[in-house]
Specification:
171 residues, 3 helices, Double Stranded RNA Binding Domain, alpha/beta, 6 strands
């Protein structure tokens, strides 16, 4: 519980914490959907920059399922609304800066830790709602995450909750 609280405080204190980017198709109407089916990525057939840990994939699927049920949707294998997700890693662009040339030892295998312009990759969790009847994605959301936060079910639930907080409520 304390670890969850610390991570949540750190995430919310960052300028980029819980920034969810959403887009929807003009044909999208939340009132149209009463049920959903979740499609998990296959951990053995992923692109090199996608999450391949099947336990994390199961945590995300469980969090998505429970959050969508809380939104009033029912899980149904015959649903036209297919919900998929992915965790992708995107590299930050390294900018060449003169500071690279004036301090540190490039031959030291640990010196990369001291360079301000060497950035670690950034991870994004994307959620896509695909309408099989329309044959297109109708709602999309993504959020920058720390992939290790998916190592705990409670944190995965919180992340999915933040993403789906931007999903329009059906009336």
């Amino acid at each position: 519980m304390l670890a969850r609280l610390v991570v949540l405080v750190l995430l919310t204190s960052c300028a980029s914490g819980f920034v969810v980017k959403v887009d929807s198709d003009e044909a999208f109407s939340a009132n149209k959907y009463k049920d959903f089916k979740i499609f998990k990525p296959d951990p053995f057939r992923v692109e090199s920059d996608e999450e391949e840990n099947p336990i994390r994939i199961n945590r995300i699927a469980k969090a998505l399922s429970s959050s969508l049920v809380q939104l009033g949707l029912n899980q149904n294998d015959q649903s036209l609304l297919k919900v998929s997700f992915s965790v992708k890693e995107k590299e930050r662009r390294n900018q060449i800066n003169s500071s690279h040339f004036f301090y540190g030892y490039r031959n030291d295998p640990f010196s990369y830790k001291f360079y301000a312009n060497d950035f670690p990759p950034v991870n994004y969790l994307s959620v896509k709602f695909f309408d099989e009847g329309l044959d297109k994605v109708v709602w999309y959301a993504n959020m920058r995450i720390n992939s290790s936060s998916l190592d705990d079910q409670d944190l995965a639930n919180e992340i999915i909750s933040q993403i789906l907080s931007r999903y329009p409520r059906s009336s």
